[in-house]
Design a protein that fits this description.
The chain is an alpha/beta fold. It folds into three domains: 6-202, Rossmann fold, CATH 3.40.50.970; 229-377, 3-Layer(aba) Sandwich (Rossmann fold); 397-585, Rossmann fold (3-Layer(aba) Sandwich), CATH 3.40.50. The chain has 21 helices and 21 strands.
C-alpha cells in the first residue's frame, strides 16, 4: 500500500478521516498558512477532489453550487481571521436553501486569541443562528502553559507526566471526534451548513505517512418518521370537504417529487397546482408563470381564487404577488409538506407535515376523492387567455429586457441546466414556460445577487449537462471573482442582460430619473463584460438588438474549447414601462 502524506497534528487527521468516512469528497480550499495541516491532508489523499479558489466569498458559493447539484455535503477550508467571515453570505444562503456545507475554519490556539495577534478574530460561533451546528474544538495537548500565556514548553522526561499527557490528549481527541462527527451528521442528515472551528498550533507543516489517531466511527443513521394514520385520516377528511384546494410548489430539486403523484391530482376539478420556475415540475394541467395568472386580478377575482386549503411543497417562493394574495386572502388551512423546515410565509400555517413528500403523497392520494368543481375549469380558461395575450404582446413590443428573455429562453438547449441570477432576472424568467427538460436553479434562500456566478460555476463543474447562467449586469459584475478559478468547463455559458444598472428599481415604486435615484438606487454604469471575458479566457459575444441575438445564438451553444459570454445590451429607460404595460395588456 503506497504511503500517504498526512499532517502530524491529530486534530487535522481526525477531520480528514471523518470526512472520508462520511463520503464528503469535494473540498474547496482557499490559500492560507493556519489551514496548512488541512490543506496538506486533503490534497494528498486520493479520496478527495480538491479545488483551489482564492476569494473565500466566491469559494463558498462555488461549494454551494456543487452541493446543490450533487445533493451531498461539500467542505470549505480556510485560514484564520477575516477569511471565514467572507463565507457568511453563502452560509446564510445554504441555511435558508437547506444545502449541506461544512465550514472548516482554522484558528489560532486559544492562548493567542484576544491578545492582539495578527490575523486573529473571535471565531467561535461566528455564524450564529445561520448554521445548524457549531463545533468549537480543543487544541491537541502537547505543552504546558505558563501563567503569562507565553510560548509553551514541550513536555519531556518524567513517565508520570507523559502518562498524564497521553490521558489528557486521548480525552481531548475523543471529545473532538465526537463533536466533528455530530457536525458532519447534522449537515448530511438535516441538509444545512455547519461550522467546525479548529485551533492549530505551530509547527503547521510537519507531515507523517500514516494515521496516528484511533479508529473512528462512520455511523450515519436516519429513520423516516412514520406517518400517523389517525392524523392522516383527519387531513383527508378536511381535504375531501373542501371545494377549493391550491397546491403551491416552490424551490424543488429536479426529480425530487415523483411526477405521477402530482399528476393524480390533475383530474380533480377542485385542485389548482401552481408551480414556480424553480419547482422543476411540468404538466399541461399545472399553472406555471404565477404572476402572469394573478397580477391582473381584481379584488373580486382574488376572492374567487382564494383557496380553502393551501398545501405548499418545496422551498422559498419567488413570486411576491402570490405572497401578497395569500396573506390578504388567507386559506382556512395551510399545510406545508416537507422535511426540516416549514415557513409560515402567509401567517396562517396550521400543519407541518414533516415527511418526505413522496412518502406522504403516496398514502394521502390513496385516500382522497376527486370532486366536481368550477374552481380549476374557470382558472384554466384564464390561464389560456393569459397565454394568448402574452404571446401577442411579445410580438408587438420593441427590443427590451422582456423581449430578450423570450428569445434566449427559447434557445436554451434541451436537457440542460439553467442557473438564474436574482433580482429582475428570476422574475422575468418566471413569466415564461420553459422546456420541461431544462433544470432550473436560483439562490432563493436569501435572494442575494452576490454569488450567482460562483454558484453557477460550481454547478457546471460537477454536472454532466450543459450549464447556462442568465444574469443581470449588477449581479454579474458584483461576482466577477466567480470567474477567477481554473475549474470552469468549456461548455459553460453566461448570458448577461446589461441594461446599464439595477433595472429592478425602475419597476419598484419610487421617484425615477433623478440624479439621486440613478446614483443610489439604479446605480447606473457604463461597464462591459468584454474585458472580463478577455482576462478570464472566455469567448465573448455581444448583441444590441433582437436580430443580433438570434444570429449569435446560432453558434453560442456549439461545442468549443472555451466557455462563452453573451452580453446583451438593452435600453435602460424603457424596460420598466414595457413590463408594467405587459401586466395591463394581459388582463
Amino acid at each position: 500500500m503506497p504511503s500517504m502524506k498526512l499532517p502530524k497534528i491529530p486534530l487535522a487527521q481526525t477531520v480528514i478521516k471523518l470526512c472520508e468516512l462520511k463520503g464528503i469528497k469535494h473540498i474547496i480550499i482557499s490559500p492560507g498558512s493556519r489551514n496548512a495541516p488541512l490543506t496538506i491532508g486533503f490534497t494528498n489523499h486520493s479520496f478527495f477532489k480538491c479545488y483551489s479558489i482564492v476569494d473565500e466569498r466566491s469559494a463558498a458559493f462555488f461549494a454551494l453550487g456543487i452541493a446543490q447539484q450533487l445533493n451531498e455535503a461539500v467542505a470549505l477550508v480556510c485560514t484564520s481571521g477575516s477569511a471565514l467571515l467572507n463565507y457568511y453570505p453563502a452560509v446564510a444562503e445554504a441555511y435558508f436553501s437547506e444545502i449541506p456545507l461544512v465550514i472548516l475554519s482554522s484558528d489560532r490556539p486559544e492562548y493567542l486569541v484576544g491578545i492582539g495577534d495578527g490575523q486573529t478574530i473571535d471565531q467561535k460561533n461566528v455564524y450564529g443562528n445561520h448554521v445548524l451546528f457549531s463545533a468549537n474544538l480543543k487544541e491537541d495537548i502537547k505543552a504546558e502553559r505558563s501563567n503569562q500565556g507565553q510560548e509553551p514548553k514541550i513536555i519531556q522526561g518524567l513517565e508520570n507526566k507523559l502518562e498524564k499527557f497521553i490521558g489528557i490528549q486521548r480525552t481531548i481527541q475523543e471529545k473532538n471526534a465526537e463533536k466533528i462527527n455530530s457536525a458532519l451528521n447534522t449537515a448530511i442528515l438535516n441538509n444545512g451548513p455547519v461550522h467546525i472551528n479548529l485551533p492549530f498550533n505551530e509547527p503547521l507543516y510537519e507531515t507523517i505517512d500514516h494515521f496516528i489517531i484511533e479508529q473512528l466511527s462512520a455511523e450515519l443513521n436516519k429513520t423516516a418518521p412514520k406517518i400517523d394514520e389517525q392524523s392522516l385520516d383527519e387531513l383527508v377528511d378536511q381535504w375531501n370537504a373542501a371545494s377549493k384546494k391550491m397546491i403551491l410548489v416552490g424551490v424543488n430539486h429536479p426529480n425530487e417529487i415523483e411526477q405521477e403523484l402530482l399528476e393524480k391530482l390533475t383530474d380533480d376539478e377542485s385542485v389548482i397546482i401552481f408551480t414556480e420556475t424553480t419547482s422543476n415540475l411540468h404538466h399541461q394541467d399545472f399553472f406555471p408563470s404565477i404572476d402572469k395568472i394573478i397580477a391582473p386580478l381584481t379584488e373580486s377575482e382574488f376572492e374567487q381564487l382564494q383557496p380553502e386549503i393551501l398545501l405548499t411543497i418545496g422551498g422559498m417562493i419567488v413570486s411576491k404577488k402570490i405572497k401578497a394574495f395569500l396573506r390578504q386572502f388567507q386559506p382556512k388551512q395551510h399545510w406545508h409538506l416537507g422535511e426540516n423546515r416549514a415557513n409560515d410565509t402567509f401567517f396562517c400555517l396550521n400543519h407541518h407535515l414533516n415527511y418526505a413528500p413522496n412518502d406522504f403523497l403516496l398514502k394521502f392520494l390513496d385516500k382522497i376523492k376527486n370532486q366536481r368543481s368550477e374552481y380549476k375549469p374557470y382558472w384554466s380558461e384564464i390561464r389560456t387567455l393569459r397565454k394568448s395575450k402574452h404571446d401577442h404582446y411579445l410580438d408587438t413590443i420593441p427590443f427590451c429586457d422582456l423581449k430578450t428573455f423570450d428569445i434566449v429562453l427559447k434557445a436554451l438547449p434541451d436537457d440542460s441546466i439553467l442557473q438564474v441570477g436574482n433580482s429582475s432576472a428570476i422574475r422575468y424568467v418566471q413569466l415564461f414556460d420553459l422546456k420541461p427538460s431544462i433544470e432550473v436553479f436560483c439562490n432563493r434562500g436569501t435572494s442575494g445577487i452576490d454569488g450567482s456566478t460562483s454558484t453557477a460555476v460550481g454547478s457546471a463543474v460537477v454536472s454532466q449537462k450543459q450549464t447556462t447562467l442568465i444574469t443581470g449586469d449588477l449581479s454579474f459584475f458584483y461576482d466577477s471573482n466567480g470567474l477567477w478559478n481554473d475549474h470552469i468547463p468549456a461548455n459553460f455559458r453566461i448570458i448577461v442582460i446589461n441594461n446599464g444598472g439595477g433595472g429592478i428599481f425602475r419597476i419598484l415604486p419610487g421617484h425615477k430619473n433623478t440624479e439621486n435615484f440613478d446614483t443610489y438606487f439604479e446605480t447606473t454604469h457604463n461597464l462591459s463584460a468584454n474585458h472580463l471575458s478577455e482576462m478570464y479566457n472566455f469567448e465573448y459575444f455581444k448583441a444590441e438588438k433582437a436580430s443580433e441575438i438570434n444570429e449569435v445564438l446560432g453558434g453560442f451553444f456549439k461545442a468549443s474549447d472555451k466557455p462563452k459570454i453573451l452580453e446583451v445590451i438593452t435600453p435602460r429607460t424603457t424596460n420598466d414601462e414595457i413590463l408594467l404595460n405587459y401586466f395591463n395588456y394581459i388582463k
